[in-house]
Specification:
alpha+beta, 3 helices, 3-stranded antiparallel beta sheet, 4-stranded mixed beta sheet
């Protein structure tokens, strides 16, 4: 299995990264860690740690529906992934966050084919979600909630700035 993973990663082992806290505006820190004793992931971290006291947003699965509830990109996982990322950005903006502040995602794709999962992951990488990089799991599944839906992303993000005023 190890040899297979090395071939998938181009046969090159990436150097382990030392956990370095990243200070962000708003007095919080995200520490992204690639564990030296584990195989280095291609474009994500094994662990993201957010300093205590930070506001977090736990997002429901972002789906490939437009504002009117119409499925975008029927039969096209890449087009659906682009819509899902756009919707995820809207969810984040609504609570005062953005893609850069995402610390973890689960990317669900209706497929058992590695090439399809990789094509969706390419959209994730190009979106800015891999800034950091965040912790992520790419999952092939049998079915999702909406007819024709091929992609869904759940996320956890830091919400920078002060919380809402106490009532």
């Amino acid at each position: 299995m190890r040899g297979r993973a090395e071939r998938w990663n181009g046969g090159r082992r990436r150097p382990s990264t030392v956990p370095v806290p990243v200070p962000l505006p708003g007095a919080f820190v995200i520490q992204r860690v690639t564990v030296p004793s584990l195989f280095p992931p291609p474009v994500y971290s094994h662990v993201s740690v957010v300093e205590a006291g930070t506001r977090l947003a736990f997002l429901a699965g972002s789906v490939p529906l437009d504002a009117e509830g119409v499925l975008v990109g029927e039969g096209d996982p890449v087009r659906q992934a682009r819509q899902v990322v756009a919707n995820l950005g809207e969810q984040l903006r609504a609570v005062g966050s953005d893609l850069e502040h995402v610390v973890a995602t689960d990317v669900h794709v209706v497929s058992a084919e590695p090439a399809v999962l990789s094509a969706v992951w390419d959209v994730v990488k190009a979106s800015g979600l891999s800034t950091g990089p965040h912790s992520s799991t790419l999952i092939g599944v049998a079915c999702l909630g909406y007819t024709g839906q091929l992609v869904e992303i759940t996320a956890t993000a830091v919400v920078p700035g002060p919380g809402p005023a106490a009532a």
